[in-house]
Design brief:
about 300 residues; alpha/beta; Rossmann fold; Alpha-Beta Plaits; 2 domains; 6-stranded mixed β-sheet; 4-stranded antiparallel β-sheet; 11 helices; globular
Length: about 300
């Protein structure tokens, strides 16, 4: 494997006595990387440091092997970015906007080709103010791609979209990575989306990396002993099994679902006991499946 796209070691940043980043170390390789954490975890602070907009108190950060504090201009020539709430001139057309912006780049991609790539080729002559929220995000990605970037930063790229719009944007990101080789760094709190798109992920909490690695490896490791039970009365079943022998933890995880973490080697015994308790309480159990999603892994890591 070649040089990592991003490398940070022991990054620290404090604001007025509050530690925004603490000993933050990650390595991001080509592909689609996801950074996930609650609000205030330090995601925005990290992005600002990587973009050269903020200086860390200590530690090192490199993008393309270049120090972000010394080579930020060179780094920015090689990246694209879509901020969480992009603002575009509503009076301009989508094509006109990209033609205007391309003058900032030495070797820009053709605006019309980019509109085709992001699925806006039929909307190029429409005023930006008349575009839907999903189209705005597509236009933002087109803008981020104008300078032929090797890496694109996406900050909450689907936060203002409906389910269909979110799916379309994720599909676009995956296609751009597969067909053009463009790498993406996605900061998001929507775990189901990161699970669908990302090769690698990192969980961040209180400015620290709690877990990092291949997405599938993290899910396997963190959910090996967790099971999801679909039931007619999840709250009653939760109260009945949370102190059961062999049960390590038990949480309400959906309208009709509880997630049970069991001690190793106790799956069959616990499942039998849970079904017996449910029967005694006249509670229906519809399914028992291994909890194996990124959300399950995140819940296990963050608890």
């Amino acid at each position: 494997m070649g040089l990592p796209l991003i490398m940070t070691e022991n990054l620290n940043k404090e604001f007025n006595g509050t530690q925004a980043l603490e000993g933050f170390s990650i390595e991001v390789n080509p592909g689609i990387f996801g950074l996930v954490g609650p609000n205030g975890a330090g995601k925005t602070t990290l992005l600002r440091i990587l973009l050269g907009l903020l200086k860390a108190d200590s530690g090192t950060a490199e993008v393309f092997g270049l120090d972000v504090s010394e080579k930020s201009i060179e780094i920015r020539r090689r990246i694209g970015i879509l901020h969480e709430n992009p603002s575009f001139p509503k009076h301009m057309t989508a094509l006109g906007f990209l033609i205007h912006i391309k003058r900032l780049f030495k070797n820009p991609q053709a605006p019309k080709d980019l509109l085709v790539a992001v699925g806006l080729d039929q909307e190029g002559n429409r005023k930006i103010g008349a575009l839907s929220a999903g189209m705005h995000q597509r236009l933002g990605i087109a803008q981020a791609l104008l300078g032929n970037p090797e890496l694109v930063f996406l900050d909450e790229p689907t936060s203002n979209l409906d389910v269909t719009g979110r799916s379309e944007i994720l599909q676009l990101v995956m296609e751009l990575n597969h067909e053009r080789g463009t790498s993406f760094f996605i900061s998001s709190h929507i775990l189901s989306e990161l699970e669908r798109a990302c090769h690698d992920v990192a969980f961040i909490k209180d400015g620290r990396v709690i877990e990092k690695g291949k997405m599938l490896d993290i899910v396997r490791k963190r959910t090996a002993h967790s099971y999801r039970i679909v039931t007619s009365d999840p709250r009653a079943l939760l109260n009945a099994v949370r102190n059961m022998r062999g049960v390590h933890d038990c949480v309400l995880s959906g309208t009709n679902t509880i997630t049970v973490e069991i001690q190793q080697g106790n799956r069959e015994k616990v499942e039998s006991d849970v079904k017996a308790v449910a029967k005694g309480l006249n509670i229906e159990i519809y399914a028992v499946n291994q909890a194996s999603t990124l959300e399950d892994a995140y819940r296990e890591v963050m608890q």
